[in-house]
Specification:
transmembrane helix, single chain, transmembrane, globular, 290 residues, NADH_UbQ_OxRdtase_su1/FPO
């Protein structure tokens, strides 16, 4: 039994960034086609990471590198907890801890661009964290458990009871996937800014680690979407995966059809969606008996 658990954990740690990297390659291809270009090959993100690993590291100081590796550790731990069907609330707390360490890295580099990026990262967290917690609360109300294994073993998918919560989560998913119009702290496109925000002072292996961390984050974000559609029926898991792909494709289209908004609008809009749409949905669900 222990050996099976260890094998599952190893597979999650190894396969999650691979799938995340493939999604990043798919993202680049779709973005290029939307812009009328051919685009890079599907495996281009892996080529980029390998190239970064081989590059020379330029150290600003010893401290800022530690925060990047600490962030990766907690993000990997989050992926293991979620994909093993563990406690969603614990996964959210660990995920937040990883994001905080990443923000600390921006402050530690002492670059004005990185510091501004770190401040934007914290603003993003203030914007999306309430919605993430409400999502966990809604799923708990439906399944009477914070464990993901229990949430996906229900007879009826959570999306039936929590459609507004799902819409609200998809809204803040743009923050987590670092896409326009809410890619405040780290722009992946040249048209957004001349420097890379919080990752400005990183190079070589550390920049590769940041990219791999983002691959993990993408799968973690889509795992929340998966929980809304998966049930005890094995066929539902196929539809859950398709729902994840549709949501990701939608986020790509939004990313390529919008420009970055000011942080004030990002914060207000996320809180309005959280406070109005999702809270109303939870109030309605409270009248159901599960």
């Amino acid at each position: 039994m222990l050996a099976i658990w260890i094998i599952r954990i190893i597979l999650i740690v190894v396969l999650t960034p691979i799938v995340g990297g493939l999604l990043a390659g798919f993202d680049r291809i779709i973005s290029a086609r939307v812009q009328g270009r051919k685009g890079p090959p599907l495996l281009q993100p892996f080529y980029d990471v390998l190239k970064l690993i081989k590059k020379e590291n330029i150290e600003v100081n010893k401290t800022y590198k530690f925060y990047v590796y600490a962030s990766l550790f907690f993000i990997i731990l989050t992926a293991v907890i979620m994909l093993m069907g563990g406690d969603m609330l614990l996964a959210i707390f660990v995920l937040t801890l990883g994001a905080i360490f990443f923000a600390f890295g921006g402050y530690a580099s002492q670059s004005p661009y990185s510091i501004i990026g770190a401040e934007r990262e914290l603003l993003q967290m203030m914007a999306y964290e309430p919605m993430v917690l409400i999502t966990a609360a809604g799923l708990y109300m439906v399944s009477k458990s914070f464990f993901i294994s229990d949430m996906i073993s229900q007879a009826v998918p959570a999306i039936v009871y929590l459609p507004a919560v799902f819409v609200g989560f998809v809204y803040i998913l743009t923050f987590k996937l670092r896409k326009s119009p809410f890619d405040l702290s780290l722009g992946h496109h040249a048209h957004q800014e001349l420097v890379q925000g919080i990752s400005t002072e990183y190079s070589g292996r550390e920049l590769a680690i940041i990219e791999i961390t983002h691959w993990y984050e993408s799968i973690i974000a889509l795992a929340f979407v998966y929980v809304f559609f998966a049930t005890s029926n094995p066929i539902s898991h196929v539809f859950a995966v398709l729902a994840c792909l549709v949501v990701y494709f939608f986020e790509i289209l939004v990313d390529n059809s919008t420009v970055r908004v000011k942080w004030q609008l990002a914060l207000k809009s996320a809180w309005i969606v959280t406070g109005v749409v999702s809270v109303v949905n939870l109030m309605i669900v409270s009248f159901f008996k599960f």
